Amino acid sequence: MSTAENKKVSFVLNNNPQTINSNQLRRVSDVLREDLGLTGTKVGCDAGDCGACTILIDGEQRYACLTAAGQLEGCNVRTVEGLSRNGELTPLQQSFLDEGAAQCGICTPGMLMAAQSLLDQVSNPSEEQVLEALSGVLCRCTGYTKIVKAVINSGKNKNLISVPETGNAVGSRMVKVDGHKKLTGEEIFGADTAPEDSLWLRAIRSPHARARFSLNHPEQVLKKYPGLVKVLTADDVPGNNGFGIYPDIKDQPVLAKDHVRYRGEAVVALVGDRASVEAVSEQDLGLVWHPTEAVRGLDGALAGNLDPVQDQFPDNTLSRGFVKKGDVEKGISGSHAVAEGLWTTSAIEHGYIEPEAGYARRIGDRLELFVCTQTPYMDLTEVAHVLGIDEQQIRIIPSAVGGGFGGKLDMSVQPLVAVAAWILDRPVRCVYTRPESLASTTKRHPVRIRAKAGCSSEGKLTAFEFHGDFNTGAYASWGPTVADRVPIHCTGPYFVPNVLSKTRALFTNESPSGAFRGFGTPQAAIAHEALMDTLSEKIGMDPLEFRIKNALRKGDRTNTRCRQWICLVWMR
Ligand code: FES
Ligand code: FES
């Protein structure tokens, strides 16, 4: 932020006169959230991309993250906290509740404000008008349909969802238990709260995919920035400087020691007051990088011409999956038609609107960690290892999660704030920036699949062969789960008598791949569904008929010879 002087700014906020003394260039989102405690306005990107921070200024939609405090002078400002009165939902909020339009809820305040700006001008908007009005706000959960319906039906809903009578609960709709808080801005996400005396933590991350590094004069930076309390390095981790999903693979360091394995890996964490922590540059730190050639892509992992990504895996193979059922060769040779192909997919970011955030504080010999997470119990175990203390000494308090989709099954801020708070005995908070979230967290596994399938002239599948190489990136994360699970599910919802499936999870110097809805099976679905299309075309059968004919039925044996216990043919 610029060094513009603090000045008084007067405006009306949610019908109340308000005067603040602020740097004129301070983001309004920070003024609302940090200075005035109105955390209903969310921040997803700080860059005008997501719309989570949408508020109304003189009735117009504005991104609070791109509006400067000085621009509020004399304006009428409305945030989500100004919608309802005395806890009563407005017709718009009630409609969101009735339609199930607030799911994780992180986009909901922005959506509500965008919708309100339209409803203030048009009481009965068309779908086109609603789509136009909401076009600046992203939602990653709902698919928008329910939100659009909620705005169109605002004030028209007569059938509010009611609690079903005893005996009639199964199959009936229920009101979202945490829906009310998501609609009023009262829901607390990872970045919405922290003890007032919290220190701020910022990780310094590698700009290189593979490099050795040294930190030459951390003491000087402490002198230059008196507000800086600690420059955390790997040597400060009191327990095991490694975490990971599997009990026997704790390969990802909290802070890298001496060398990094992917671009975005944390090497140092600065802890202190926010302004000081944000002002420090790499030059200040004396970070010196010695980049080396990185292992890139699946071909790079298999080439064997560079040192392995991790020494304990000399051929870069983290794990293998294998499933065999029947005789696939015989099945293919006896087929009337055969289809085959090669498919590749790239890494995919989860794209949740809420960046990773949380805080930790030490209370005597215990640690309390408030964080947005999908796996509080796994966090408990991991943080205990990292701190070298007993699990019973740790309490994880999960915040509301503003979207996860599997990405928040892995740790992010947890070990960093835990170590800092533990050794400094001060509360420490961290909120990832959007670029930091994109650079440092897990992705969907990129994959290369070769697959072949055969069928009879009547359209019955005869055999299926599958080879999949999954790029698991620099650290294991959920790689073994993906390599193990895909062979089981590689034929999708179809019965195939002869199956051979082999997979590998391979290390590269790329972002770690982790959990993402389906653990590798969506990538496999691209292959099996393409093969279904080609086979049905080859034998002249309708593709849907072909699929129905081959769908797993009750009693069929799956690839691992389990008995199918429900009938998947439900369309008829
Ligand atoms: S648009 Fe403001 S936080 Fe994303
Ligand atoms: S409900 Fe919209 S992002 Fe989750």
Mind explaining what this structure looks like?
- Helices cover 26% and strands 23% of the residues.
- It is built from 17 helices and 20 strands.
- By secondary structure, it is of the alpha+beta class.
- Helix 2 (91-99) packs antiparallel against helix 5 and helix 12 crosses helix 13.
- Strand 3 and strand 4 (60-63) form a beta hairpin.
- The strands form 4 sheets. The chain has a 7-stranded mixed beta sheet with strand order 8-10-6-17-14-15-16, with helices on both faces.
- The structure holds FE2/S2 (inorganic) cluster (FES) (2 copies).
- One FE2/S2 (inorganic) cluster is lined by residues 43-46, 48-53, 63, 65.
- One FE2/S2 (inorganic) cluster is lined by residues 102-107, 139-142, 353, 403.
Task: Give the topology, please.
Layout: E1 6-13, E2 16-23, H1 28-35, E3 54-57, E4 60-63, E5 76-78, H2 91-99, H3 108-119, H4 127-133, H5 145-152, H6 179-184, E6 199-205, E7 211-215, H7 218-224, E8 228-232, E9 259-260, E10 266-272, H8 274-279, H9 282-285, E11 287-291, H10 297-303, E12 317-325, H11 328-333, E13 337-345, E14 357-363, E15 366-371, H12 376-387, E16 394-398, H13 414-424, E17 428-431, H14 434-440, E18 447-455, E19 461-473, H15 479-489, E20 498-507, H16 521-539, H17 543-550
Parallel strand pairs: 1-5, 6-17, 15-16, 19-20
Antiparallel strand pairs: 1-2, 3-4, 3-5, 6-10, 7-9, 7-11, 8-10, 12-20, 13-18, 14-15, 14-17, 18-19
Helix pairs in contact: 2-5, 12-13
